[in-house]
Amino acid sequence: MKQTDFVWDYRDPYEWMKRVNRGTFPPMIITCAITGGLHGKESNENLPETAEEQADAVYEAYRAGAVSVHIHARDTGNLAMTTSKAEHYSRVNRLIRERCPDIIINNTTGGSPGLSLQERMACLYADPAPDMASLNPGPFMMKFFLNERKPPLPHTRPGTMFDACVPASYSDVNAFAKTMKEKGIKPEIELYHPGQYWVIHDLIREGNLDAPYMVQFVLGFQTSSYPTPANVLSLINELPPNSIFSLIGVGPYQLSMNVMSIILGGHVRVGMEDNLYYRKGEKVKSNAQVVARIKRIAEDMNREIADVAQAREILGLPQRP
Predict the structure, then answer these.
(1) What is the full DSSP assignment across 257-321?
(2) 68-to-65, 107, 138, 204, 285 alpha-carbon distances in Å
(3) What is the pLDDT of residues 5-23, one digit of tens each?
């Protein structure tokens, strides 16, 4: 297939109708964010923390249909937090490559609050290297209650109100993007609100971002756009040419935002970083569980699911890691 089969003008109603009519939406990439940077087993006992648990979770999600995995390696000295050390990412990536040789590994540069710019870049120096890395095009704030971490869990802590900001400047974002480009790592731009399009255009002007641009909308997170259909359509309307998009819905908005992306011809991210519940009152049992659900829904809606080779072609990645 040609790149134009994957990258098209999502704003064109005639193109959208033609693709629906002919069933020619691009194969849908399922990314699974298996764990996050803050919450852990104190919030859902099924969430993977150790490198071995993360590799097992990735393998299960891969078998269920995920072709890309988003990684927050945990600090072995404090499993409740994302690490700042490249060797921790190296161990997770190595275990994943042993189980899933071709899967797209996407490490986080968001890390967790409190990490410096250099500490958040540690994931880019992992061996084996990731195929992609997340790139936040601006700062964001968060305020929520962190559950108490009780024995027998390691690295216990009291429950606490968490109130923090992850800072970013134009030069910070360009430093991340430039380092990724030098290392052959594709940025996955995690866009929280439309004002961050200013930063994306700056990255393009500075020559630190290459097409096709992978823009992932993060909706329902604090200081992001509200997770509404109108906001999704507005964000799509501002995409630079030669872009593809994916959609994250945080918490109870995960499924509705995922389905919006299926309808609109985009891609999806699921996983326990974004939502710890399968439905109201029922916790997620595994990352594979939510991968299998979105795969089933997409197939019922006549969307082809991308295999790893197709996903790599869509994203402009080498076929071999």
Answers:
(1) HHHHHHHHT-EEEESTTT-SEEETTEE---HHHHHHHHHHHHHHTTPPBP-HHHHHHHHT--S--
(2) 9, 10, 24, 24, 20
(3) 889 999 999 999 999 999 9
CATH class held by domain 3-315: alpha beta
Tokens coding 252: 């109870």
Whole-angstrom distance between the N-terminal and C-terminal Cα of the chain? 21
Mean pLDDT of the chain: 96
DSSP state of 48: -
pTM above 0.90, yes or no: yes
Rounded alpha-carbon distances, angstroms, from residue 300 to 46, 48, 297, 305, 306? 28, 29, 5, 11, 15
User: How many residues in the chain?
Assistant: 321
Percent of the chain as helix, strand, coil, to the nearest 5: 40, 20, 40
Rounded to a whole number, what is the largest CA-CA distance in the chain? 58
pLDDT at 4 over 90: no
Cis check: omega of the bond before 212, within 30 degrees of 0: yes
310-311-312-315 Cα dihedral, nearest 10 degrees: 120
DSSP designation for 129: P
Identify the three-state secondary structure at position 210: coil
Residues 114-168 pLDDT 10s:
889 999 999 999 999 999 999 999 998 989 899 999 999 999 999 999 898 989 9
pLDDT of residue 50: 98
